[in-house]
Amino acid sequence: MELSESMIFGGFSIAILLLLFIYVIVREKETKKRLNAYEKSIEAINKNIYQLEKKIDEKTEDTITAQEIERMKQELVSTIKQPIYASLETIKETVKLSKNDVETRMSNLEEKAKEYMSIPISASLDESRVMHLFKNGYTVDDIARELRSNVSEINFLLKVKGLA
Questions:
Q1: SS3 (DSSP) at 119
Q2: CB 154, CB 130: distance < 8 Å
Q3: Spatial CB neighbours of 86, under 8 Å, sequence gap ≥ 6
Q4: What's the predicted TM-score (pTM) here?
Q5: What is the distance between the alpha carbons of residues 59 and 104, in angstroms, rounded to a whole number?
Q6: How many domains does the chain have?
Q7: Are 157 and 148 in contact (CB under 8 A)?
Q8: N or C: which end of the chain has fewer CB within 10 A?
Q9: Residue 149 and residue 142: Cα distance in Å, rounded?
Q10: 91-117: per-residue pLDDT in tens?
Q11: What whole-number distance in Å separates Cα of residue 36 and Cα of residue 99?
Q12: Which residues contact 73 (CB under 8 A, 6 or more apart)?
């Protein structure tokens, strides 16, 4: 019985070693493929570098000075800058007109709201007394305490009258 167990164990060991060997061979082939691809890429890069160096050597005769480059850059910037500034000015004017239009509409709405806001605030709230106290420097809280009223009612009355 011990002999058959050791044979089975030996067979499994050989099978595992064989699988490991196959795995290593497959991985090595994949690694070689990758290395070949890297080699080709490096060769292509070296070839491109060589061609660029060759072109640079050919172009050294036609070099442009730094001052010429700066002048060309300034000309390019100025030609691009003018239309941008013109566009910005147009946008600025449009925004200004829109702002004025919105302000006009808001004031018209406020005026219409005041016309429709002739709702009595409170029967117990004396409007003339509130106006008198506010004009004499009383705060909204002081006026509310003095008249035994709500602060929000005082604020609303002052806003309707255009004082707050």
A1: coil
A2: yes
A3: none
A4: 0.30
A5: 65
A6: 3
A7: no
A8: N
A9: 10
A10: 888 888 877 877 887 777 777 776 666
A11: 67
A12: none
Residues 10 and 44 in one domain: yes
Cβ burial of 1 (10 Å; 0-12, 13-18, 19+) is: exposed
Let me know: does 121 contact 153? Beta carbons within 8 Å.
yes
Q: 163: Cβ–Cβ under 8 A, 6 or more apart, which residues?
A: 131, 134
Mean pLDDT rounded to a whole number for the chain: 81
Q: Do residues 127 and 70 share a domain?
A: no
Distance in angstroms (rounded) separating the CA atoms of residues 79 and 76: 5
| Residue-range definition of the domain harbouring residue 145 | 120-164
Dist. CA 124–CA 110, nearest whole Å:
26
* Residue 79: alpha-carbon gap to chain centroid: 29
List the one residue out of 117, 139, 115 whose CA is nearest residue 130. Answer: 139
